[in-house]
TrEMBL record:
<protein>
    <submittedName>
        <fullName>LON peptidase substrate-binding domain-containing protein</fullName>
    </submittedName>
</protein>
<dbReference type="InterPro" id="IPR003111">
    <property type="entry name" value="Lon_prtase_N"/>
</dbReference>
<dbReference type="InterPro" id="IPR046336">
    <property type="entry name" value="Lon_prtase_N_sf"/>
</dbReference>
<dbReference type="Pfam" id="PF02190">
    <property type="entry name" value="LON_substr_bdg"/>
</dbReference>
<feature type="domain" description="Lon N-terminal">
    <location>
        <begin position="6"/>
        <end position="224"/>
    </location>
</feature>
<dbReference type="InterPro" id="IPR015947">
    <property type="entry name" value="PUA-like_sf"/>
</dbReference>
């Protein structure tokens, strides 16, 4: 078993390998994380792990009106996550490589990172200014019949896009190039579908690419049928989901 210790950034969303993650970092615990990452030479990866929150708050109450005007301030790396953070987070997350970490004049950070590989959460350390985690790297196994499954998922995904564009009363751009490598397809479709966090989390932690593609095929057919039967559904309802405050 290969393990690694990395800074831990919990979010109300799921990060997939290959997907871009923009972050607006303003909480002190995550500012401290970014200051630490900036100590890494530019020619080396500035890595941290992203896990989806199962039970807790992405942004801890730090002052009246931030984010709840009636909340009492909650400080420290565990703020908002309870006494046992392992129970607050989903067990499978994704390593992120920060290509850009830009500090603003007010001390907050603008960060642009990319998901690289899946990891399993083993333990969480809250003794420092920000959370760190011991993580087990998870290989991406192809599984059986991944290639034909990817072809079927891409066909269904295009139909899903068309239905979604029609429900939003806008045209869909044509000629867009979509990948054909099964693993890339599985993650791209998982990130692009309008799903809740638990559903995306199940796709992230699928045992192999083929299993993820099979689940996506079922979801795409189900979601496309729902959109087809609700042609007047407002675009706001289709796109509504948890917004990341970071």
């Amino acid at each position: 078993m290969t393990t690694v210790r990395l800074p831990l950034f919990p979010l109300n969303s799921v990060l997939f390998p290959g997907l871009v993650l923009p972050l607006n970092v303003f909480e002190e615990r995550y500012r401290a994380m970014m200051r630490e990452l900036l100590k890494t030479p530019e020619d080396e990866p500035r890595r941290f792990a992203v896990v989806a929150i199962r039970d807790g708050h992405e942004v801890a109450p730090s002052a009246p009106g931030m984010p709840d005007p009636t909340a009492l301030p909650d400080r420290g790396p565990l703020a908002g996550f309870g006494a046992d953070p392992v129970k607050a987070f989903h067990k499978v997350g994704c390593v992120a490589d920060a290509a850009t970490i830009r500090e603003r004049t007010d001390g907050s950070f603008e960060v642009l990172a990319t998901g690289t590989s899946r990891v399993r959460l083993l333990s969480v350390d809250a003794s420092g200014p920000f959370l760190t985690a011991e993580l087990e790297t998870l290989p991406e196994e192809p599984g059986d019949e991944a290639a034909p499954l990817a072809e079927g998922v891409l066909r269904s995904f295009r139909q899903y896009q068309k239905r979604l564009a029609g429900a939003r009363e806008r045209s869909l751009a044509t000629g867009a190039e979509l990948p054909d490598e099964p693993g890339v397809v599985s993650y791209l479709v998982a990130a692009a579908m309008m799903l809740d966090t638990p559903s995306k989390q199940r796709l992230l932690q699928a045992p192999d690419t083929a299993s993820r593609l099979r689940d996506e095929l079922k979801l795409l057919r189900s979601e496309t049928a729902i959109i087809r039967n609700l042609p007047s559904l407002p675009a706001s309802e289709l796109t509504r989901g948890p917004m990341s405050l970071n």
